[in-house]
Design brief:
The complex is a heterodimer. By secondary structure, chain A is of the alpha+beta class. Chain A is built from ten helices and twelve strands. Chain A starts with a helix and ends in a 6-residue tail after the last strand. Chain B is 54% helix and 12% strand. The longest helix of chain B has 21 residues. Classes of the chains: A alpha+beta, B alpha/beta.
Amino acid sequence: MIADKNIHSEAFAYFRTRATNLLFVLTEEGRIVEANAYACSLTGQDLAGRNFQDVIVDFGGRFDLTKLSIDPSKEYLMSVSNTSGLPQSFYFTFTPVSGFVLAFGRLDAEELDSMRKEVLALNQDLNNMTRELHKKNAQLERLNKEKNRFLGMAAHDLRKPIGLIITYSEFLIEESANVLDAEQFGFLNTINESSTFMKRVVDDFLDISAIEAGKLELDLQPASISDVIGKCLELNRLQADKKQISLEFRDAENIPVIQMDAAKIEQVLINLVSNAIEHSKPGSAVVIRTNTDQDMVTVSVQDFGPGIPPEDMKKIFKPFEKTGVKKTAGEKSTGLGMLITRKIIDAHKGKIWVESQVGQGTTIYFQLPLYQERQ
Amino acid sequence: MISDKVYKEYVDLLLEGKRLDCTHIVQNLLDQGVPIKTLYTDLFQKSLYHVGELWEFNRISVAKEHLATAITEGLMNLTYPLLFDSDWYEKGRKIIISCAANEYHQIGGKMVADICELNGWDSHFLGANTPVDHMLEYIQEVKPDLIGLSLSVYFNMASLKKELEAIRSNFTHLDIFIGGQAFRWGGVDMMKTYPRVEYIPTLDELETFIK
């Protein structure tokens, strides 16, 4: 045992001024008489005169200095709020000395070291995963590009022969009505209808392939949405008449001319109106409305068909996903039309959404900005 | 090209642990079109060598050195959108880059993996502290054309030797290269006694070697 007082006082002075351990001299009631420099810098406060209980994080108010100082060799884990507001844990001992209590707090170096290692390892893992994620993403993008290129090529090569089948079957339907019997004529009609559907599939594939390849370029020009709707209704009139469905256009007044790609918006409208007709019962109506507010023009297409069940709503804009709702005359769908529609509206920085009630019908809304920068 | 002023500002911030400010500098350099390799050699590598020296000469603590390394590794993530961009494609030649068992410094190996990727290799980076068995299984699965082994701490030389022996005896004809800061203190001659093993001291020499 070193008895030299000078050594003791030097050691104590070191703990008071330099050591990164906490040192408090407390009264028996727990008031801080003195705190070392580290304690003050950790808490950012001059602690003399304060209660020790207020310096530690003591949620339950269970701090009892008399009990804690019974066994000076026993360590108690306690937390102190540091200047960043985060609690920091120390192992404290409480030693009664000459009517005072010496509170000494140490950090668990082993615990800190193990935590540092873990944090570094986690950081490495996270960074490695980020690298892997970027690489996998690049691989997927590459595969997606390949798929679109293949899709585009296949669709492009199929389009011409399908067009020829449609043309020749139409020619035969016109020219051979008196030559063929009813069954043969039925075969011819099936060829024509099926090849027309195939052409729609191929056209949708070409659209999707172009959109996914980032080739959806808009030709933004000033155009009247009312005119585009009018044109679309003319194009859908024959389909509607066949099912005895009336097409009603309720145009709001003063719809301004807006910047849009009229051909693409016409494609959107043809798809929406055509879908509405396909889901409508004969004798009902499809209603198209327009409206404007401060910065958007809203178009809605409403049918009074069977409506879409809530569980099918999320499928509407997904590729190849079809709702369980049957079309009233058994019309076929490619499963791509609504996706293409949404992509076109998105490209216009617009918005599209669906409201539907089973048994009441469905309304599809889309909004286009009144003002937008030319691309 | 990274100016001395930018480098100095960066390294000071790195030593102060100011991650967000460092991020800002790196992102600016990338936005200005500084090539990834230049960023790796003239900023990341140069600053980390400096940080390593400061630690070796007891000018900074090991905690500070670890923090600087962790920040740098996080900053490397900023390059990945460019490294693995839309023009990225699956390459034919495969390389596995790994650190020896007990070697917890992986950033050098990771830079090597990224430089290989920039030079037309499909690089598989296994990270720090790769157990020998895991490495052998991975080689069996991926069937690489080349293996790169990184060593930062000289005291882990025995682990590297063990790994080298295991690979050599299981895959006799597989080319291997070694590199890393550990070899500043020796060990190259001993490693080169193994057949088909090359020592590559710098990223520039790596580029020549893998072309």
